[in-house]
Design goal:
Strand content: 15-25%
Number of strands: 12
Radius of gyration: 36 Å
Structural class: alpha/beta
Strand order of the largest sheet: 6-5-4-7-8-11
Helix content: 40-55%
Order of helices and strands: EEHHHEEHEEHHEHEEEHEHEHH
Largest sheet: 6 strands, mixed
């Protein structure tokens, strides 16, 4: 069968079944058949038709209707359609990435500008905007862990959900192992060429009755998931929220910073990842840039075609014309013959 043929002067349209135009050969064959079949006779003008010009036009219409119906049906059978071409910059070769972000109350500490969580949001959103071919998801955790966004290529939704992160929506505490385990559960059965988790925290694991961080790291390693761990906060002391006043407003005090760096390093080493410490906004930006350079996506371009069939614009007029022909032959035409 022939391939589709573009329609002249309409570059976005084509005929999907151009072989149907061979059926147009029926028309000259039909004319030849009729000429051979027509007996010799002397034609005399009809007084009835010459007296009524409208009826003469009607007779001519009925004479050629079948040819127009046949032409329209052949055009419909040739399947004219609108073609939209799009480039697919990622042919299934992206990286699956899960963010596991600590949203405990201490993430509002003001050693980063304006605070740790807000600084992280902006830099993470910028990181996502550069990973066009990747599927990315989001897990938030503090004393418990929840999936905010499963793996998706809809990065607008993901950036919006990261922007909405805020402490106090989950149980208080820092369950690093639980946050990591939930992120692992989204990646472990995926067949993507590379699977990574970006685990961010500013504290130590304080929830003892949940999955230990090292066990969660081993689960990641068993599933070929690489974990990059990021410790957020300065060395020494930082202005942290410690309590609320009578008006419900957070009160900030200078408190010693405690980040369980040995555990974060062990998680990274167990999974083949890397540990980073971000003490300032520029440090955090540098961490994301390094991760971006370490985990490059190999893009392959392909073409995606979408089609909108337009045969109905020929089929419907053909059917209407046929019905009109039948109606006229059974009403007006019967009255004049």
């Amino acid at each position: 069968m022939w391939n589709s043929v573009p329609i002249p002067f309409l570059p976005s349209y084509e005929f999907a079944a151009p072989w149907a135009f061979f059926l147009l050969l029926i028309l000259p064959m039909f004319f030849i058949f009729r000429l051979r079949k027509k007996p010799a006779s002397l034609s005399l003008p009809s007084i009835q038709f010459t007296q009524n010009k409208g009826r003469s036009v009607l007779f001519s219409f009925l004479k050629y209707t079948k040819y127009w119906v046949l032409i329209l049906l052949i055009l419909a059978l040739a399947r004219p359609r609108y073609v939209e071409l799009r480039n697919n910059d990622n042919d299934g070769k992206g990286i699956d990435i899960m963010f596991a972000i600590d949203v405990s109350l201490s993430m509002l500490s003001r050693d980063l500008e304006p605070d740790r969580l807000t600084a992280l949001k902006g830099i993470a959103q910028d990181f996502i905007s550069k990973r066009q071919g990747d599927r990315i998801g989001l897990v938030a955790y503090s004393g418990e862990a929840v999936t905010k966004v499963p793996l998706t290529t809809d990065h607008d939704v993901l950036r919006e959900e990261i922007g909405n992160l805020y402490p106090n929506e989950l149980a208080q505490g820092t369950a690093i192992g639980e946050g990591l385990a939930v992120a692992v559960s989204h990646l472990q059965n995926k067949s993507s060429k590379s699977k990574i988790i970006l685990l961010m925290t500013d504290g130590v694991n304080t929830i003892e009755n949940q999955i230990p961080p090292i066990i969660a790291a081993q689960l990641a390693a068993d599933s070929n998931i690489k974990v990059y761990t990021i410790g957020i906060g300065t060395n020494g002391v930082a202005l942290m929220p410690t309590r609320s006043n009578i008006f419900g407003e957070l009160v900030f005090d200078m408190v010693e910073v405690k980040i369980d760096e040995p555990v974060l390093r062990e998680i990274a080493q167990t999974t083949g990842g890397k540990y980073f410490r971000a003490e300032t906004n520029s440090d955090l930006l540098g961490v994301y840039k390094e991760i971006d350079s370490l985990e490059k996506t190999n893009y392959s371009k392909s073409k995606l075609y979408s089609y909108k069939e337009n045969y109905k614009y020929f089929l419907i007029p053909a059917l209407l014309l046929l019905l009109l022909d039948i109606l006229i032959r059974w009403t007006l035409y019967r009255q004049i013959i």
